[in-house]
Amino acid sequence: MTKIAIIGAGLSGLSAAHLLKDYADITLFEKARGVSGRMSTRRAESYFFDHGAQYFTARTKPFQDFIQPLLNLGIIERWDARYVKFKGNQIIERRNWRDEEPRYVGVPGMNHVAKFLAKGQNIHINTRIASLNHQRAWQLTDEQGQQYPGFDWVICTAPSPQAVDLLPDSFKYHADIQAIKMRACFSLMLGFEQNIALDFEAAHVTDSDLSWIAVNSHKPQRPDLFTLMIHSSEDYAEAHIDDERDKVMQHLINKTSHIIGQDVSQANYKTIHGWRYANNADKKQKSSIFIDQDLKLAACGDWCLGGRVEGAFTSAYDLTKHMKESAL
Ligand SMILES: Cc1cc2nc3c(=O)[nH]c(=O)nc-3n(C[C@H](O)[C@H](O)[C@H](O)COP(=O)(O)OP(=O)(O)OC[C@H]3O[C@@H](n4cnc5c(N)ncnc54)[C@H](O)[C@@H]3O)c2cc1C
Q1: Binding site membership of 55 for ligand 1 (Cβ less than 6 Å)
Q2: Which domain holds residue 142?
Q3: Could you identify which of 32, 77, 240, 327 might form a hypothetical disulfide with 220, taking C-beta atoms 3.0 to 4.6 angstroms apart as the criterion?
Q4: Burial of 21 (0-12, 13-18, 19+ CB in 10 A)
């Protein structure tokens, strides 16, 4: 059977592994301590935070079909939030997601989607692939110098700036991937002993250093303890990604208090996470398939398709469909 190495166990890597499992012998390599990538959930004291993807839509038939078993099993549920849009600290729009297309979340945490998809897969976690070499077959080497030889194909699902570092210059699409830029984001996590009275649970924010405020604990099957999940704007994060984290956290706390009109500095638990490669710079980018049949090397990820969870799946779907039809 064809042996395929997949670098990255976020949604695109795990989706590719699922879609190819009847066609090839798959091994995944993930640098983090667990699977999920940017669909992660952080547990801190008694609080839980989805600090990457907040929710996702399913607008295409292949993704709807893919998530249906997860919906049936209760791994995914709808999140019917009261939604508002802020311009600065003014609410300029109100909607209720209960009346609109479904917004889905993993339950009891976003990371449960990847945990479910990872079951039965051969995954090396805590394994950062540092280089790829090809002689008669592909050999992967991790940062400890451990070698993993004998792969017919390699699929890289790391964010585009990291993929470019890993893929050889001879890869047919090296320059195309290099041109796909990603932008940063900060996730501010606040846990409270008591609820804060708000008349929304999900908010996009414009004209601000913030882009998103959500009551994370309102999502289905979360623990009762009240939590807020706040994202910075990409512009703010790009300008401050290397700043001292306490300073960034204080700034975002002040902004949040100003926007929602309540002092959140009294949170019982506060922490911040910086994502250097959070999202595509070009959100309208059309799907691209990066598959080099001569080298037997391919790349996919949300960055092939304008970012977002559904884009991550679709890029894996398009790539593996192409591989199944023509390459394997
Ligand atoms: C703050 C934030 C908010 C977001 N909000 C939303 C939202 O509300 N809705 C939505 O649809 N999308 C959202 N997104 C985007 C969404 O999270 C992504 O589109 C999706 O999770 C990307 O999946 P992926 O598998 O392509 O990439 P990733 O999840 O990044 O997976 C790539 C994996 O590769 C691993 N990796 C990288 N390099 C190596 C290496 N050398 N060796 C081994 N492993 C490696 C990484 O550790 C990672 O796990 C958000 C993202 C962020 C950061």
Answers
A1: yes
A2: 1-31+127-181+288-328
A3: 77
A4: middle
Task: State which of 38, 111, 115, 205 you would mutate to test the pocket of ligand 1, scoring each by most atoms of that ligand within 8 A of its C-beta.
Answer: 38
Considering the domain architecture, whether residues 220 and 305 belong to the same structural domain is answered as no
Question: What's this model's pTM, rounded to 2 decimal places?
Answer: 0.96
SS3 263: coil
pLDDT tens, 101-115? 999 999 999 999 999
Identify residue 300 by its one-letter amino acid code: C
The CA 314 to ligand 1 mean position distance, Å, reads 14
CA 76 to CA 86: how far, in whole Å?
A: 28
Mean pLDDT of 135-163: 97
Structure tokens at 45: 């004291």
CATH number at residue 213: 3.90.660.10
> Can you tell me the distance from the alpha carbon of 60 to that of 66, in angstroms, rounded to the nearest whole number?
10
pLDDT digits (tens, 9 = 90+) for 240-249: 999 999 999 9
Q: What is the model's pLDDT at position 155?
A: 98
Report the alpha-carbon distance of residue 165 to residue 182 in Å, rounded.
Answer: 14
Cα–Cα separations (whole angstroms), residue 57 to 7, 155, 254, 309: 25, 25, 31, 8
Unique residue bearing structure tokens 């547990």:
43
Q: Angle at Cα 225 formed by Cα 222 and Cα 226, nearest 5°?
A: 95
Element (H, E) at 156: strand 153-156
Confidence at residue 324, expressed as pLDDT on a 0 to 100 scale: 92
Residues 270 and 298 in one domain: no
Residue 187 and residue 171 share a domain = no
Count of structural domains, the chain: 2
Start-to-end Cα distance in the chain: 10
